[in-house]
Design a protein that fits this description.
This protein is of the alpha+beta class. Helix content is 33%, strand content 22%. It is built from 16 helices and 20 strands. Strands 1-6-5-4-7-3-2-8-9 form a 9-stranded mixed β-sheet, with helices on one face. Strands 16-15-18-17-20-19 form a 6-stranded mixed β-sheet, with helices on both faces. The longest helix has 24 residues. It is elongated. It starts with a strand and ends with a helix. The structure holds adenosine-5'-diphosphate and magnesium ion (MG). Adenosine-5'-diphosphate binds next to helix 2, helix 3 and helix 4. Homodimer. InterPro entries: HATPase_C_sf, HATPase_dom, Heat_shock_protein_90_CS, HSP90_C, Hsp90_fam, Hsp90_N, Ribosomal_Su5_D2-typ_SF. It comes from Gracilibacillus dipsosauri. Keywords: ATP-binding, Chaperone, Cytoplasm, Nucleotide-binding, Stress response.
């Protein structure tokens, strides 16, 4: 038996690794399973170019075996195994990745599927282990070896008669201490859920003996424990499947499985991009507003996978705020990760993906509006405010992108209409897009200011949401038609004759107007004769750009 020290600096690196790189202990299982999957992949890639190797997918699997008596957890694979040299190089040297070298060697586009690259994942097992033992036998006829380490004092290597090609890693779990309990890694359910969380889409079966209560054969009433080997992971990620093979029910099932919401998704998109940056994505537009949507607790973001292994639960950078309601996943083989594979190294790829996704969501909503109005209005009912905020926020930087997603209630159509629809219907002599603000449609209906505009045969958009007018002020115009509040002083809808008549009247009643102004004092800025009233004796109107409704909102805001 040979005893060797870890390569220089490795000991310190190991310390650091165990104590600070990973945020959660459970990650060690993700790392060992990723390595096992890589090891099987390597046989697969070799078989592609070497006729003497056959690859029958059914012979390859990963097996997880907890042993409560010995307090060990074993991760077994039928992968390529390691020679003595490889054991020393790859497990004896921290930050040495045999997988990265392999990837560079095969130089195949397919080789990209291999997960390993940093050469540290294996050591994460020392977060939970007092001792790690590796039995391995390489593919090419050589003998097997046993490698063992307590993580501090170097490692030992000795020949060992392993029957099958592959690797078996035995983790001797640490003793439980006051605050730390390692027994969870012996519990079937806990292990199952860790595997599901991080490794559900590993392409090879991850098998485990699962014990379940089942009715007895001769007596259905009685339940007995039945232990059976089961495959825990779903293997093929739904986003890698062909769209044509998937039904709406499949997408809905995935939405439920991922707990994206308690509702049904209103709509989904399945994206596969093979451009500057490669990625697959499944996105959902929920049906209902999440209960915490307008609270501080709500976090936007998409699940981010690198090569089908979960990297981040909620990657916020993938979604702009105005699409924060979108749920889903992104999987990319082009991400550069940091060493813990928990954070992204650089955000160039993420930015590219985010840009692409934003465009896809926008186009999807646009086509929903065009082709499935009912669904779009349902969406708008739940998330329309967010779109309006989007128009208004960031000093209007995104207004052009979003303006065609806006809907407002229309006086003449008695339903929601888009700005495009409004403008297309405009009579030739109409110069502006008219709107009126108020608490409700009924209230707005009764506004004296709407009468004259309606009489002219012009459509009015009813703004009942506080953000409506702010959004529109940001837009300023749509297809060169300016927005105009029906309450603004200068509607200019009168013909020449009535204008002259108005001038005359103003002269005649000058004294009355002055007196009224004196009585009302500071409450109004001015008292004027109006030509646009029909059935109402008087109306309030705003000067300049800010409507009365908007003024109310502005007054409520903190200075
Ligand atoms: P990485 O996976 O990033 O390369 P690891 O520390 O997880 O780094 O593993 C180091 C190396 O050890 C791998 O690159 C691989 O060459 C080798 N290795 C680890 N686990 C196995 C295994 N189960 N079968 C074969 N080789 C393995
Ligand atoms: Mg690894």
């Amino acid at each position: 038996m040979e005893k060797k020290q870890f390569q220089a600096e490795s000991k310190r690196l190991l310390e650091m690794m165990v104590h600070s790189i990973y945020s959660q202990k459970e990650i060690f299982l993700r790392e060992l399973i990723s390595n096992a999957s890589d090891a099987i992949d390597k046989i697969y890639y070799k078989a592609l170019t070497d006729d003497s190797i056959s690859f029958n997918k059914d012979d390859y699997y990963i097996r997880i075996e907890p042993n409560k008596d010995k307090r060990t957890l074993t991760v077994k694979d039928t992968g390529i195994g390691m020679t003595k040299e490889e054991l020393e190089e790859n497990l004896g040297t921290i930050a040495k990745s045999g997988s990265l070298a392999f990837k560079n060697e095969v130089e195949m586009k397919d080789g990209q599927e291999i997960i390993g690259q940093f050469g540290v994942g294996f050591y994460s097992s020392f977060m939970v282990a007092d001792k790690v033992t590796v039995y391995t036998r390489p593919l090419h006829g050589e003998e097997g070896y046993k490698w063992e380490s307590d993580g501090e004092d170097g490692y030992t290597i000795e020949p060992h008669n392993k029957e099958d090609v592959g690797t078996e890693i035995i983790i001797q779990l640490k003793e439980n201490a006051d605050e730390e309990n390692y027994d969870e890694f012996l519990e079937e359910h806990r292990l199952q859920s860790i595997i599901k969380k991080y490794s559900d889409f590993i392409r090879y079966p991850i098998k485990m003996d699962i014990t379940e209560k089942r009715p007895k054969e001769d007596n259905e009433e009685e339940l007995v424990d039945v232990t059976e080997e089961q495959t825990v992971n779903s293997m093929v990620p739904i986003w890698r499947k062909n769209k044509q093979e998937l039904t709406d029910a499949d997408y809905e099932a995935f939405y439920q499985e991922k707990h994206f919401g308690f509702d049904q998704p209103l709509s989904h998109l399945h994206i596969s991009v093979d451009g500057m940056v490669r990625f697959q994505s499944i996105l959902y537009i929920p049906e209902q507003l999440p209960f915490d949507y307008y609270s501080k607790e709500f976090e936007k973001g998409l699940e981010l996978y690198s090569n089908s292994v979960l990297i981040m639960d909620k990657c916020a950078d993938l979604l702009p705020d105005y699409f924060s309601f979108v749920k889903g996943i992104v999987d990319s083989e082009d991400l550069s990760l940091n060493i813990s594979r928990e954070i992204l190294q650089q955000d160039r790829q993420v930015k590219l993906i985010a840009k692409n996704i934003e465009k896809k969501i926008k186009n999807h909503l646009q086509s929903l509006l065009k082709n499935d109005r009912e669904k779009y209005e349902k969406f708008y009912d739940a998330f329309g405010r967010q779109i309006k905020f989007g128009v208004y926020s960031d000093f209007g930087a995104n207004k052009d992108k979003l303006k065609d997603l806006l809907l407002f209630y229309s006086s003449s159509e008695n339903k929601l209409v888009s700005l495009k629809e409004y403008v297309e219907r405009m009579p030739e002599d109409q110069e502006h897009i008219y709107y009126a603000t108020g608490e409700s449609h009924e209230r707005i209906e009764k506004l004296p200011q709407t009468e004259m505009v309606k009489d002219k045969g012009y459509e009015i958009l009813y703004f009942t949401d506080e953000v409506d007018e702010f959004a529109i002020k940001m837009l300023m115009s749509y297809e060169e038609k300016e927005f105009k509040s029906v309450s603004s002083g200068d509607l200019n809808l009168e013909d020449e004759e009535s204008k002259k008549e108005a001038e005359k009247q103003k002269e005649e009643h000058k004294d009355l107007l002055t007196e009224m102004k004196e009585i009302l004092g500071d409450k109004v800025k001015d008292v004027r004769l109006s030509t646009r009233l029909k059935s109402h004796p008087v109306c309030l109107s705003a000067e300049g750009d800010v409507s009365i409704e908007m003024e109310k909102v502005l007054k409520q805001m903190p200075d």
